[in-house]
TrEMBL record:
Hydrolase as UniProt keyword: no
Alphabetical list of SUPFAM superfamilies matching this protein: Nucleotide-diphospho-sugar transferases
Pfam families found in the cross-reference section: Glycos_transf_2
GO terms assigned for molecular function: transferase activity
Protein name as annotated: Glycosyl transferase, group 2 family protein
Residues covered by the Glycosyltransferase 2-like domain: 65-237
Amino acid sequence: MYNFFKTLRVIYRIERDNISYRELIEFLYEETPPSNYNFLNYNYAPHISKITKYGRGVKTKPIFSVIIPTYNCQKLLMGTLQAAVSQKDVPSSEFEIIIVDNGSMDQTAGTVAGFARFQKETEIIYVKLKKNYGADFARNVGALWSQGSLLAFTDDDCLVPPDWLSWFKRILDSHPEVIGASGWKEPYSISGDLDFYHRFAFWTHKFFPTPLKNTAYSFRSGYTANFCCRKESFKKLGGFNFYFQHIGFYDFPVRIYKSGLSLIYEPRMVKHEASFSFKDYFHKSLIMGADLYLLHLLHPNLWKNISFFYFLKRAKKEMGAILSDPKDPPIFRKSLSDMVGFSFLAIISNFCYWFGRYRIPFKSAFHISNTGVDA
């Protein structure tokens, strides 16, 4: 009964926007978030079940550490690993690959072991976590085990291009003043047909500009499926905030911007396997709504207005663009079904972004444990 009334009080304070980020994290996780945002000081060791290193012939330190979090994705992971080792202009001995497994229940470990047997020069490191703590938790673990001076991040359902690492190196060598570079991800489907929800998500990414104009910061920078950062800078910034379930890539570049540093965004894409149902999309949008509220509490100058009417105006703006934008196949075909469907998703998405905050107090809705988030 006490927990019931405590939950009601939290909902009431969320409604009045009268609760702090720290209070919400303490309520959800029963632990105090680091005051200095240094998430790399967290004690990750108790959450690791095993670490396996598949050695290589060359013993020099690599330049790149490619970090891939994974969870129950063995089939797509093999393609991701094959694309990662098929790099041009960067010798295999100059990068290592670190797979951090969030407690997968499939044959991920065997997939990695089988793949590693054929890698003569690239060291493969497999870290198995005890359960699913979330992708950003896993990324931080990978960074802590890395040897390279540059950290390159992608996801287990992405295919990076052959010049991925050389592109990052060329940009960072040419711009020593920036701490990292990133692109975005382009949906593709093994079946050949892109699902409706990924097409809409990709369209909104192209449609909405960065909210902070005339700065080096952009929401598009730092997207963790296609991102490279100098390791020393990553350590100084404290790594990724693993209390976010889906949009840690929003929080990290904000902290970079506030530190007076910058990222470079280039419209270079990695391919992302697109397979969503309406249930998946709706659930993810609700979680993003909760994350956006946490982002508002953590960075109020960035998200000042997150009211129902703000998201209503945002939905109307999207719907206006849907009606006026030219067709852009295969993403937006300008057909009646696309215009009606995209308009429907604009309404649903923005409703979820507003309503998601009210799910925060219900831990079961977020699969919260005391030591991380299930993504």
